[in-house]
Amino acid sequence: MLENIAIILAAGVGKRFAGSVPKQYNLIYNNPVIYYSLLTFLQHNLIHKVLPVINKEHEDIFVNILNQYKLSSNTKLLPYVFGGETRKDSVFNALKNIKELENNNTANTFNKVLIHDSARPFVSNKIITNVINSITKEQGCIPALKINDSLKKVDHNNYITDSLNRDNIVKAQTPQGFPFCELLNSYKNSSNCNVTDDAEIIAKSNLKIAIISGSLLNEKITTKENLQYLEKLTSSVEYRIGQGFDVHAFATKNNVDLYLGGIKIPNHKGLLGHSDADVVLHALVDAILGSLAKGDIGDYFPPSDDKWKGAPSSIFLVKAKELLEDSFATIANIDITILCETPKITSYKQLIINNIASILNIKPSIINIKATTTETLGFLGRKEGIAAMATVLVLLKTN
Ligand code: CTP
Ligand code: MG
User: Fold this and answer.
1) Of all helices (H) and strands (E), which one includes residue 358?
2) What is the pLDDT of residue 163?
3) In principle, which of 121, 172, 226, 347 could form an S-S bond with 36, CB 3.0–4.6 Å?
4) Below-50 pLDDT ranges, the chain
5) What is the helix, strand, coil percentage profile of the chain, to 5?
6) How remote is the CA of residue 227 from the centroid of ligand 1, in Å?
7) In this structure, are residues 183 and 141 in contact, taking their beta carbons and an 8 Å threshold?
């Protein structure tokens, strides 16, 4: 099968950024810079494989990110390779690795290759699609931005020596896309070590390079100021609210444990249910799914499936967390109300809060648990079961 592959470059040390952590591993909006482009390419339907290129010195940081976001199980993600001294060396290593993959597995033939700087976290699907669609056997394609400012030449003392015509000049961005074989050959034939992008290498070949519109959001993070600017640009978020409600009846037998918010609570009776019947976590998961417009808990964990029999409800919350991450969404706050006559919840509130915070990897201070009775009215008042309501406010990054 002919496949398109994206190389995500992250082997640089970020000298100009000069941070305690390399720029591609700094956090933007709670996630590492590199995570955004990795996920964008992994989720793109025209990309079949993604190959990260990292610096050997940063291996631990990168592996932690793979584990934290459970990326290793993604079938599109190839095992990372190490980069080299320069960007050019890093790309060449990746291209040679792709060639080896082809040689070892004849089922894979790589057609188009896209090279993307991980330091450009907010590349859009549209740019990726446009680059891919523009690549042919005869031409590569890169996104670029027109220059709107005047261009000046300066001397070493920062005095202007000349003005330049900006009419035929654009700023090159990534992903830069080319037919794989032609790019590999150009890299093999290139002796120039000072190139800063792939278009410069391919320029020596017969391939033409087309331009499509880049975007301001796709600017590269080079300095700390760039990162702060991008952070400001992307601080425009959409607010999404979700609510969830769940009820479970008390079991008639006394041998069922009661779980609320993932905490085992001593009580003479537990709740009946297919899983562990944790009404608090069920309501919370539904609230998160609601905020993302992604259905309800039964869509992901059907009660008809024996797999979830007696399952701890924390696995449902872990799934909700993954869906939040897929949408680059973060939780602003959670408010939960537990309705029951018994047991008394007060002394377990903080334990529940801490447990939810740790599963969702959020601060306990944005979670609130309330408990109330129904003044002995209705089925809850008759102590026939427990209900829970959850409201979640989610911040969705618009890009
Ligand atoms: N890159 C790479 N291997 C290198 C150098 C750079 O994979 N030897 C990657 C960077 O990680 C980055 C992209 O190429 O995603 C663009 O390079 P640049 O912005 O120059 O990043 P750094 O080289 O890390 O930064 P600096 O030049 O300031 O040291
Ligand atoms: Mg560099």
Assistant:
1) helix 349-360
2) 95
3) 121
4) none
5) 35, 30, 40
6) 15
7) no
Task: Note the pLDDT of residue 398.
Answer: 67
Which of 86, 117, 176, 221 best tests ligand 1's pocket when mutated (most atoms within 8 Å of CB)?
117
**What is the structure's pLDDT at 29?**
78
Instruction: Provide long-range contacts, Cβ within 8 A and 24+ apart, for 148-151.
Output: none
CA distance 35 to 29: 11
Cα of 260 from ligand 2 centre, angstroms: 51
The Cα 239–Cα 223 span in angstroms is: 30
CA of 85, closest atom in ligand 1: 8
In the structure encoding, which two tokens stand for residue 188, read together? 């093999």
Tell me the pLDDT tens digit for each residue of 69-118: 889 989 999 999 999 999 999 999 999 999 999 988 877 789 999 999 99
157 and 137 Cβ atoms separated by less than 8 Å: no
Contacts of 296-303 with C-beta under 8 Å, sequence gap 24+, read 301/275, 303/274
For 195-214, the pLDDT digits (tens) are 899 999 998 888 999 999 99
219 lines ligand 1 (CB under 6 A): no
